[in-house]
Design goal:
The structure is a single chain. This protein is an alpha+beta fold and about 110 residues long. It has a domain at about 40-110: Ribosomal protein L7/L12, C-terminal domain/Adaptor protein ClpS (Ribosomal Protein L30, Chain: A), CATH 3.30.1390. It has 3 helices and 3 strands, in the order E-H-H-E-H-E. A 3-stranded antiparallel β-sheet has the order 2-1-3. The longest helix has 17 residues, at about 85-100. It starts with about 30 loop residues before the first strand and ends with a strand. The protein binds L-tyrosinamide (TYC). L-tyrosinamide binds next to strand 1, helix 1 and helix 2.
Length: about 110
């Protein structure tokens, strides 16, 4: 019959008699976001290390490395999470910083 298709109109990855799986599982993975810490001249190194340990659960030695990366390079990745978690951690960092009088800032970047 004119216009009839053997594949029933299904996409190539879901032909008749085959299991319907996506060609690449990555398309189902929720998007991840980097929480990026920014350097400033006033927040103490110890406060940044404390934030990296308490909010991002890094071991102290790793927290010191990340803090020094931010201090020397201007920014550094504190962690990578789904959006809602990344946003919540970034908010907590800045609320805690403000409560102590520090200007520490962080931003989110698509990973
Ligand atoms: N540059 C700050 C200082 O010398 C330390 C610092 C590190 C501040 C990392 C912010 O995200 C930051 N006291």
């Amino acid at each position: 019959m004119a216009g009839e298709r053997k594949d029933g109109g299904r996409p190539q990855w879901q032909q008749e008699g085959e299991v319907a799986t996506r060609p690449d599982d990555r398309v189902r993975r929720p998007r991840q976001y980097r929480v990026v810490l920014l350097n400033d001249d006033y927040t103490t190194m110890e406060f940044v290390v404390m934030v990296l340990v308490e909010i991002f659960h890094h071991p102290r030695q790793r927290a010191i490395e990340i803090m020094l990366q931010v201090h020397h390079q201007g920014s550094g990745v504190a962690g990578i999470y789904p959006y809602a978690i990344a946003e919540s951690k970034a908010r907590r960092v800045m609320q805690l910083a403000r409560s102590q009088g520090y200007p520490l800032r962080c931003t989110l970047e698509p990973a």
